[in-house]
Write a structure and sequence with these properties.
Structural class: alpha/beta
CATH architecture of the largest domain: 4-Layer Sandwich
Strand order of the largest sheet: 3-2-4-1-10-9-11-14
Radius of gyration: 25 Å
Helix content: 25-40%
Bound molecules: 2-deoxy-2-amino glucitol-6-phosphate
CATH superfamily of the largest domain: Aminohydrolase, N-terminal nucleophile (Ntn) domain
Largest sheet: 8 strands, antiparallel
Oligomer: single chain
Number of domains: 3
Number of strands: 26
Distance between the termini: 29 Å
Length: 613
């Protein structure tokens, strides 16, 4: 997610902007920039890389004492992390600048239309469209021009605008991307997140979706983007310290990121699916339909949690696209004799895009002539640069070492990939695809609605189970990989030994482990293997095992065999159940680790990105 800071007041703006952007660094970024006014003209400086480069360029802010400006740290989503793509972006004549956080879904259409009208674009970003669209409507009222621009924009935005024709005002607007205002004395602020503002004011105004604000040094006026009607948004006094503010009040980044999943799943499928028609759009895949038709096999290549995402995707791709899928641990794949060639599509899955084993596997696959399409969360990372194309997961920076929102975003990207392959190979009719797409589009709302309740149930459970030394996680079909993922979450942040297992394998060994000291977490979705799962749970129960069942609302049968039941929302389509069943497993791991006093965000011996073998 990008960082935005804006200032209008009596002090020089640049030091405030640099300091505010520095306080947003935790969000992760790959380029930065600031803009201000000098002798009535817009000035702008941007740099690829970290803020220190920008600070040098503006001499620590001393380059100007202009009391108005905007700044930005960019987490690339469209376009590589270069200076040209860094914000702020300007219109054709450099009369105005825009900073933006979010995804403009229809930027491609708008950009083509604006090009036809004579606008010249210099970046690959979706944001630059905003600058030119405002320019198109700008005569002498910047607020009206922004309003008309946003009437044509689809997608998510938190944005700030500075125009040389209104040297005393900033315009801000938000829709589905956070933006807050800071109310000061003789000065006012905007920011994408509270930490940037705390040194200057604790009076924070939370803009709501569809709000537009006009800031001068002495006033903040808020109205609705669509109607222009004025609205009141009361300032709240924030008592958090800066560290708490970075976590938006959550105890840890991991918990914040668990709660961000409705948004990150939405941001990952946004602009790529059309529920009404069942159409999937993945322009990142440069392979033609003919080339895709020649694909005889798919290799999903990953490590850790990303490997679990691949294991889930195997079921979707094989069922919908009818292509055989192998899910390979990159650390094994890279040291074997590989039977891959130009008819084998290799898909490295990686949050960081820097995992050494996955990168090595990718390089070997390429040497064998395989086309490579990556699934990755970091634009411009090594794996993306060495792939033929990348389907980006728009999860935003994931700070917690344990992967949560990146995992469900990977599932989202893989789900869309499976439907895309079915679409291009004509193995699924549009109505069936539309049904799967409608099911996926429901996931954010389903999770959002019950997250708090699931969290409460998992907290109560962790109070009872945090001192156990061993856990077994069981699942079948799509939920076997989810059982593996739940076990990994627990072991990596609480240091408790936990094993994920295919429930059907119980009688082939693990059942010997069952006793009162080995809680069994059983994933029991109402799917085609539900009865099988129930009998596995009964096997455990009859051997005096302790069962924690994760089961859907309305399933009363399971309560007869499991001592503990964590309820999740019931969903009709089996394909989306893995998204839902993952959430309580993340929360159980989090709450048990917290109860054990572990360092949840930075667990011992682990790194966020394993760039060495
Ligand atoms: C997951 O919680 C772990 N942090 C780890 O297994 C991770 O998924 C693995 O190292 C792969 O990382 P990547 O997705 O960045 O390639």
């Amino acid at each position: 997610m990008c960082g935005i800071v804006g200032y209008v007041g009596s002090k020089p703006a640049l030091p405030v902007l640099l300091d505010g952007l520095a306080r947003l660094e935790y969000r992760g970024y790959d380029s930065a920039g600031v803009a201000w006014l000098k002798d009535g003209e817009v000035q702008r400086m941007r740099c690829q890389g970290k803020l220190v480069g920008l600070r040098d360029m503006v001499q620590g802010g001393k380059i100007s004492d202009c009391p108005i400006g905007i700044g930005h740290t960019r987490w690339a989503t469209h376009g590589a992390p270069t200076e040209e793509n860094a914000h702020p972006h300007t219109d054709c004549k450099g009369k105005l600048v825009v900073v933006h956080n979010g995804i403009i879904e229809n930027y491609f259409t708008l950009r083509n239309q604006l090009r036809e009208e004579g606008h010249t674009f210099v970046s690959e970003t979706d944001t630059e469209v905003l600058a030119h669209l405002i320019e198109k409507y700008l005569e002498n009222d910047i607020v009206e021009a922004v309003r008309r621009c946003l009437a044509e924009v689809e997608g998510a935005f938190a944005m700030g605008v500075l125009w040389k024709g209104a040297p005393d005002k900033l315009v801000a607007a938000r829709k589905e991307s956070p933006l807050v205002l800071g109310a000061g004395k003789g000065e006012n602020f905007m920011a994408s997140d509270i930490p940037a503002l705390l040194p200057y004011t604790r009076e924070i105004i939370f803009l709501e979706d569809g709000d537009l604000a006009v800031l001068t040094k002495d006033s903040i006026e808020i109205s609705r983007i669509d109607t222009g009607e004025s609205v009141e948004r009361e300032a709240k006094t924030i008592s958090w310290d800066a560290t708490a503010a970075e976590k938006a009040g959550y105890r840890h980044f991991m918990l914040k990121e668990i709660y961000e999943q409705p948004q990150s799943v939405l941001n990952t499928f946004r602009g790529r699916i059309i529920p009404e028609t069942g159409h999937v759009d993945l322009p990142e895949i440069k392979l033609s339909n003919e080339e895709l038709a020649k694909i005889s096999r798919i290799v999903l290549l990953a490590c850790g949690t990303s490997w679990h995402a691949g294991l889930v995707a195997k079921y979707w791709i094989e069922e919908w696209a009818g292509i055989p899928v192998e899910v390979e641990l990159a650390s094994e794949f890279r040291y074997r004799r590989l039977l891959v060639n130009e008819t084998v599509l290799v898909v490295p899955i990686s949050q960081s895009g820097e995992t050494a084993d996955t990168l090595a596997g990718l390089r070997i696959a390429r040497k064998h002539g395989s086309p490579v399409i990556a699934i990755c969360n970091v634009v411009g990372s090594t794996i993306t640069r060495e792939s033929d194309g990348t389907i980006y997961t728009h999860a935003g920076p994931e700070i917690g070492v344990a992967s949560t929102k990146a995992f469900t975003s990977q599932l989202t990207a893989l789900y869309i990939l499976a439907l895309f392959l079915a679409q291009t190979r004509n193995t699924m009719d549009p109505a069936a695809r539309a049904e799967k797409i409608r099911a996926l589009s429901e996931v954010p709302r389903i999770i959002e609605k019950r997250l708090e309740e699931m969290h409460q149930a998992c907290t109560e459970l962790s109070d009872e189970f945090y001192q156990y030394r061993d856990f077994l996680y069981l699942g079948r079909h799509l939920h076997f990989p989810i059982a593996l993922e739940g076990a990994l979450k627990l072991k990596e942040i609480s240091y408790i030994h936990a094993e994920g297992y295919a429930a059907g394998e119980m009688k082939h060994g693990p059942i010997a482990l069952i006793d009162r000291n080995m809680p069994v977490v059983a994933l029991v979705p109402r799917d085609h293997v539900y009865e099988k799962m129930v009998s596995n749970v009964e096997e455990v129960r009859s051997r005096r095992g302790i069962i924690i069942a994760v089961a859907e609302d309305g399933d009363n049968d399971i309560s007869r065999v499991a001592q503990h039941v964590i309820r999740v929302p019931a969903t009709k389509d089996p394909a989306i159940k893995p998204f839902i069943f993952t959430i309580p497993l993340q929360l159980i791991a989090y709450e048990i680790a917290f109860a054990r006093g572990c360092d949840v965000d930075q667990p011992r011996n682990l790194a966020k990105s394993v760039t060495v073998e």
